[in-house]
Amino acid sequence: MIVRVPGDKSITQRALILAGLAEGESRLAGLLGGADPRATAAAVRALGVEVPDLPPDGSPIVVRGRGRSGLRAPTAPLDLQNSGTGARLLLGILAGRPLEAVVTGDASLRSRPMRRITEPLTRMGARFEELEAPDRLPIRVHGGPLSPLTYDSPVASAQVKSALLFAGLSAGVPVTVREPNRSRDHSERLLHALGARVRTGPGEGGRWQVELPDPPDRLAPLDLRVPGDPSSAAFLLAAAALGAAPAGLCVREVGLNPTRTGFLDVLRHMGVALTATDLDGELPWEPVGDLVVDALAPLRAVEVGGDAIPALIDEIPILAVLAARAEGVTRITGARELRVKETDRLRALAENLRAVGVEARELEDGLEIEGTDAPLEGRVRAFHDHRIAMAFGVLGAQGGNAIEVDDPAVADVSFPGFWALLEALAAASRKPGPRGRPDDDPDREEAAGRGPVVTIDGPAGSGKSTTAREVARRLGFRHLDSGALYRAVTYALLQAGVPEERWGSLSAHDLARLGVRAVPVEGDVEIHLGERRLTRQLRGPDVTARVSQVARLPEVRRWLLDVQRGLGRAGS
Ligand code: S3P
Q1: Distance in angstroms (rounded) separating the CA atoms of residues 158 and 254
Q2: Separation of 188 CA from ligand 1 center, angstroms?
Q3: In angstroms, what is the span from residue 517 Cα to ligand 1's centroid?
């Protein structure tokens, strides 16, 4: 079975910001349309750059950059919501421009440290006012001409490194950053694509050094395609390793930048046979390839720490979940940075693992997890953290486990459509594929990987459903009655007693909490509310009277589109 994951979050955020700083039209394809990049895109727009809405399917957009001197002061605070990368990288850009702006975010982002960025930027000459609490957003930045900087970062953080490089770029001054270990290098690669010279290599004292020696006045626009996010692919590979996705699973066109692929090595050590096929030359600035899970063996515990951490920093939640199913005790160390992610991930992982019956100990800088093969059950908390929610979603998808995630909608931050795709994979791992589903024919598999979708529309009562069902049957596609999804949301709203006047202000979170699920089965997609399959209920007079009102709500449409894209990624 062939699937795809949405575009890389780190590259998407950087591409949006840098395209705004470049002069002229940048063409960006494959961007992630999740909540983090949407927040970053809105902030870049507020600086006067023309940025279209991010398409949910990665189709190309054109960003019209005005050059670094074309950026305008925003008229309202820039709300980066949950996006630490967006907030920190923009603080870097703003520091180098003669503007004033307030940067803020949601409760999770407002609890994360910012002095790691503002302290070195202050040394360059920028001024910051912490408006509520020390070291935290909201922060007012007073940017302006900056002095060159050479900085020894105490942490291996791509956000710190990138914020400083971007400040050098926006102010036109040289910057050198040395980090204890090499962190992800997407900024360096993109700067190169913009025509800036970047030098990298081992520096003093065994540190990794990155230099922007002579930032150019004018940056050339970008023309790039963003590969699939390896951090999102990690959840699907892990699902396969747990038997919650079919063996032979292929995740297509994933970024294979060596500063990001540490998790693949760990998976292999745990006993999963994986092939990474390099698609050399397609994306010259970033390596990209297909990942195939060839064979599974019982998972073995591993020790992970030290230099290995930066290349799998975002994969530790899913690694911890695999450790819960591995034989032996897994020890993760040197991962103190996890305490300042979207939540304190070390605490969240230990608490959640224990909540479902796994023995897990929190270390000061890591975790110890004792694998078990007992059924795992319980309710876990996402703590506003997409990767915590998805990691436990994968564990819950393993046969025999019953795990409820309190806030599944938070996955939208980096992986829209995650839950539908996970359900489709789990369904495919339980049953042989529907007739004509591409399980053994490579050409059909290729087609399914692109998830071709045939849409049948027409006036009410014209026979759309009957026609669509028959077309799907003959093509061997899975049939989805998208109208039934709108009816299911309407039914759920009525059942939950949500007053009609509140329907227009429901967020994706609220909608996800209703519990409407699209469950792929052989040749079809069933609509469930919680654990209950909905059939006749969808045709009741109350639902019929209100469904068109619900189907007009933009947030409902967007949310259901994500659900449908997730199904599309799993096959035709
Ligand atoms: C990111 C860098 C990492 C990572 C985050 C995205 C980036 O954070 O955890 O999800 O895009 O630069 P740090 O730089 O703080 O390690």
Answers
A1: 20
A2: 14
A3: 31
On the 0-12 / 13-18 / 19+ scale of CB atoms within 10 A, 501 is exposed
Query: Exposed, middle or buried, 359 (CB in 10 Å: 0-12/13-18/19+)?
Result: middle
Catalytic, 314? Answer: yes
Q: Is 82 in the pocket of ligand 1 (CB under 6 A)?
A: no
Which position has the token pair 């919501």?
A: 81
465-489 tens-digit pLDDT = 888 888 887 777 888 888 899 999 9
- Distance between CA atoms of 189 and 15, rounded to whole angstroms? 11
Question: CA-CA distance, 212 to 197, in Å (whole number)?
Answer: 6
Give the type of residue at 156.
Answer: A
Q: Which residue has the tokens 């699902």?
A: 239
State the Cα–Cα distance between residues 157 and 254, nearest whole angstrom.
Answer: 22
**What is the strand order of the sheet 61-66 is part of?**
61-66, 23-29, 223-225
For a pocket test of ligand 1, which of 91, 184, 188 has the largest count of ligand atoms closer than 8 A to its C-beta? 184
Instruction: Please say if the pLDDT value at position 452 is more than 80.
Output: no
Q: What is the 3-state secondary structure (H, E, C) of 104-166?
A: ECCCCHHHCCCHHHHHHHHHHCCEEEECCCCCCCCEEEECCCCCCEEEECCCCCHHHHHHHHH
Residue to substitute in 10, 114, 259 for testing ligand 1 pocket (most ligand atoms within 8 angstroms of CB): 10
In 281-391, beta strands by DSSP E: 288-295, 303-304, 329-332, 359-363, 366-370, 377-380
The whole-number pLDDT of residue 433 equals 43
Question: Does ligand 1 have an atom closer than 6 angstroms to the CB of 159?
Answer: yes
Q: What are the pLDDT digits (tens) for 497-553?
A: 999 999 988 887 788 888 888 887 777 888 989 878 898 889 888 998 899 889 988
210 lines ligand 1 (CB under 6 A): no
- The single residue of 8, 79, 229, 314 carrying the catalytic annotation is 314
Average pLDDT over residues 164-189: 98
**Alpha helix locations (H) across 282-344?**
316-323
Report the SS3 class of residue 363.
strand
232-260 tens-digit pLDDT: 999 999 999 999 999 889 999 999 999 99
CA distance 522 to 370: 37
Tell the residue number behind the tokens 């920190």, with chain if given. 88
Measure the CA–CA gap between 238 and 564, rounded to whole angstroms.
23
Beta strands in 266-425 (DSSP E): 273-278, 288-295, 303-304, 329-332, 359-363, 366-370, 377-380, 402-405
Residue type, 528: H
Whether 52 contacts 81, CB under 8 Å: no
Q: How far, in Å, CA of 521 to CA of 145, rounded? A: 60
The Cα 287–Cα 276 span in angstroms is 11
- H-state helical runs in 151-276: 158-171, 186-193, 230-241, 262-270
385 close to ligand 1 (CB < 6 Angstrom): no
pTM: 0.81
